[in-house]
């Protein structure tokens, strides 16, 4: 049973920084891409950033230059370092991982439960 567990959400002042973590637990699986989405109240979930198993990253224009995604394959963990946070970044962040549970099985996207980031002005 694969599970993603996020941590790091907090209340932070505008202009501040915060680092989110998301660890995949379980055994015998392979992970391809990992990444983050976010969702503000009343809005659709939007993609934030992603990183491949080789370390290639991509970012939404809204966070480019402020956020950095990274991963530690030895720990099955993806990170999101956020800086210069803005009040409109008050959202719930969800991590995901594309996982194959068996050698010949399908790739399935797993999601974390979400972690809230609140930025005070």
Textual characterization of the structure:
Strand 5 (46-51) and strand 6 (57-59) form a beta hairpin. The chain is built from no helices and eleven strands. Strands 2, 4, 5, 6, 9, 10 and 11 form a seven-stranded mixed sheet that branches. A four-stranded antiparallel sheet has the order 1-3-8-7, with no helix packed on it. It has strands at 3-7, 11-13, 18-25, 30-39, 46-51, 57-59, 67-72, 77-82, 91-100, 107-111, 115-120. By secondary structure, it is mainly β.
List the helices and strands and how they pair.
Blueprint: E1 3-7, E2 11-13, E3 18-25, E4 30-39, E5 46-51, E6 57-59, E7 67-72, E8 77-82, E9 91-100, E10 107-111, E11 115-120
Parallel strand pairs: 2-11
Antiparallel strand pairs: 1-3, 3-8, 4-5, 4-9, 5-6, 7-8, 9-10, 9-11
**Mean pLDDT level:** 94
- The rough form would be described as elongated
Helix-strand makeup class: mainly beta
Number of strands: 11
Helix content: under 10%
Question: Tally the helices: what do you get?
Answer: 0
Concise synopsis of the structure shown:
The protein is mainly β and 121 residues long. It has strands at residues 3-7, 11-13, 18-25, 30-39, 46-51, 57-59, 67-72, 77-82, 91-100, 107-111, 115-120.
Summary keywords:
about 120 residues
């Amino acid at each position: 049973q694969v599970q993603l567990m996020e941590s790091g959400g907090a209340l932070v002042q505008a202009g501040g920084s915060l680092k989110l973590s998301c660890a995949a637990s379980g055994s015998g699986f392979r992970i391809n891409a990992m990444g983050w989405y976010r969702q503000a109240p009343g809005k659709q979930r939007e993609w934030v950033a992603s990183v491949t198993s080789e370390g290639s990253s991509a970012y939404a224009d809204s966070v480019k230059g402020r956020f950095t995604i990274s991963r530690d394959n030895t720990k099955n963990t993806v990170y999101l370092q956020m800086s210069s946070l803005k009040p409109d970044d008050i959202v719930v962040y969800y991590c995901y991982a594309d996982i194959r549970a068996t050698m010949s099985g399908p790739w399935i996207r797993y999601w974390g439960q979400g972690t809230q980031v609140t930025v005070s002005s």
